[in-house]
Design a protein that fits this description.
- A hairpin with a 3-residue loop joins strand 2 and strand 3.
- The protein folds into 2 domains: about 120 residues, Roll (2,3-Dihydroxybiphenyl 1,2-Dioxygenase, domain 1); about 160 residues, 2,3-Dihydroxybiphenyl 1,2-Dioxygenase, domain 1, CATH 3.10.180.10.
- With about 325 residues, the chain is an alpha+beta fold.
- Helices cover about 25% and strands about 30% of the residues.
- The longest helix is centred in the last third of the chain and has 19 residues.
- It is built from 7 helices and 18 strands.
- The structure holds fe (ii) ion.
- The site of fe (ii) ion (FE2) has 7 residues, from strand 9, strand 13 and strand 16.
């Protein structure tokens, strides 16, 4: 196979402190539905056909567990595995059948240069029923990760997994594996950590309905509602989940094709309406939202859990 590539974003897997509370949040407040619950994990779907968009695993430390991508078929999975292995990347497993509780399928795992677990698979089960409720997320739209070595991470996603660079705004690369302007973005920081996961809402009205549901559940907006003046030009509203992960409702993410001109920082920094705004008014993340997006909230909670564990072991 000439140039095997991933062709879509399926789901995100998160290690969480308390599975019951986290699943309840993603179900009742965020708007997802149970697909499968096990002793230590919960798989939750959006309204679209993907088997699940979030998998939660109860662990002593919270963090990003995996990002799941799709490939067209088993032959593409095999060809990608061969290409990645030849590149010298740390491949976690040979292609194999995935567990049925996660929708099955055929795939493998590889570590990105900064250690994120990337799963690539084909033939995963999907739902034939589309849930008719536009106030709830339809799918996972994109994942942004904080990276310490931007160039190395970009080379991995672009040169090995087959992503294309859509834009770079001077401190973030927005990369695509489908018509969606970005399925992954790499934020230059002290990484590695999860910056945020964005869930797609059908339109602006449905995004506002989601925001309303979150506020009724006493989860305040951490940034937005606004429209990014930068790459993707999407409407956004950011929140923090009970663990400290930053999550986003988004809509109207730009859809592009091969004619899309990649533009760099000079172009984006000169755009009008910077920074991101709404009705002419600047909107910026709250301090607590910015901390969550930088991975600081999770880091602090993990550190306090480590202290509790150490104290218990010492006593
Ligand atoms: Fe986003």
């Amino acid at each position: 196979m000439a140039d095997p590539k991933v062709n879509g974003l399926r789901s995100i897997e998160l290690n969480v402190f308390n599975l019951k509370d986290s699943a309840e949040f993603y179900r009742k407040a965020w708007g997802l539905d149970d697909v499968k619950l096990t002793n230590g994990a919960a798989y939750l779907r959006a309204t679209g056909p993907n088997h699940h968009v979030v998998a939660l695993h109860e662990k002593p430390r919270a963090g990003l567990a995996a990002i799941n991508f799709s490939a067209a078929d088993k032959a593409t999975v095999d060809a990608l595995h061969a290409k990645i292995t030849a590149s010298g990347a740390t491949v976690h497993s040979a292609p194999h059948d995935f567990p049925g509780e996660a929708g099955g399928g055929y795939g493998f795992e590889v570590y990105s240069p900064e250690g994120q677990n990337i799963r690539i698979s084909s033939d995963v089960a999907s739902h034939s029923d589309i849930i008719d409720d536009p106030s709830r997320p339809a799918c996972l739209n994109h994942v942004v990760i904080n990276v310490a070595d931007h160039d190395k991470q970009l080379a991995f996603f672009r040169d090995i997994l087959g992503f294309k660079l859509s834009d770079n705004n001077g401190h973030m690369s927005f990369i695509r594996c489908s018509a969606n302007h970005h399925s992954i973005a790499l934020a230059e920081s002290q990484g590695p950590s999860l910056n945020h996961a964005a869930f797609e809402m059908h339109d602006f009205v449905s995004l506002m309905q989601g925001v309303g549901r979150m506020r009724l559940a006493e989860h305040e907006v951490g940034w937005g509602v606004g429209r990014h003046s930068g790459p993707g030009r999407n409407i956004f509203s950011y929140f923090v989940d009970p663990n400290g992960f930053a999550i986003e409702y988004t809509t109207e993410v730009e859809q592009v094709d091969d004619s899309y001109p990649t533009r760099m920082g000079d172009y984006w920094q000169a755009q009008p309406l910077r920074p991101c705004s709404w009705a002419g008014k600047m909107t910026v993340p709250t301090k607590w939202m910015a901390e969550a997006m930088n991975g600081i909230t999770i880091e602090k909670r993990n550190a306090s859990c480590d202290d509790v564990i150490s104290e218990k072991m010492a006593s």
